[in-house]
Amino acid sequence: MLNSKLQICAVVLCCGLGGIAQADDLGKAEYMSACASCHGESAAGDGPLAELMTVPVPALTGLSAANDGNFPMLDVIHSIDGRQGTRGHGYPMPVWGDRFAKDIPNAGPYGAEPIIRGRVLSIAYYLESIQK
């Protein structure tokens, strides 16, 4: 029994390490799918839907500069997810945590949560990587 648990852990670790190299690509893909229509492909706040918004769509490349050079990771995660009561930059920001949950209806409430958090975190890591 212990041997099979160790084998499972080894497989998970190996798969996870291979995924680290793809994290930037996954984060960019998530961003382009969920965020670029409003925030723009370059995250400058100039997406095709930005002009239709009732509040200005912020640029996302200056988050670190606005925070003394520190990327506000937890704030960004909460703004993207939206389920913690933190509404991102005005009310029109979608609650992506709920939207991502709808993409995985058969995972159940606990099985979906790691997937949702991974998607949100991948976007946050991507945003961190494009700071000016």
In short:
The protein has 132 residues and is an all-alpha fold.
Write the layout of secondary structure elements.
Layout: H1 2-20, H2 23-34, H3 36-39, H4 73-81, H5 96-102, H6 108-129
Helix pairs in contact: 2-6, 4-6, 5-6
Distance between the termini: 50 Å
Q: How many separate domains?
A: 1
Helix content: 55-70%
Largest sheet: none
* Average pLDDT reading: 82
Shape, principal axes of CA atoms = globular
**Poorly predicted runs of 5 or more residues:** 1-15
Separate helix tally? 6
Coarse structural class:
mainly alpha
Count of distinct strands: 0
Indicate the radius of gyration in whole angstroms.
Answer: 17 Å
Classify the beta-strand content into a percent band.
Answer: under 5%
| Succession of helices and strands | HHHHHH
Question: How would you portray this structure in words?
Answer:
The chain is mainly α and 132 residues long. It has one domain. Helix content is 55%, strand content 0%. It has helices at 2-20, 23-34, 36-39, 73-81, 96-102, 108-129. Helix 4 (73-81) crosses helix 6 and helix 5 packs across helix 6. The chain is globular. The N and C termini lie far apart (50 Å).
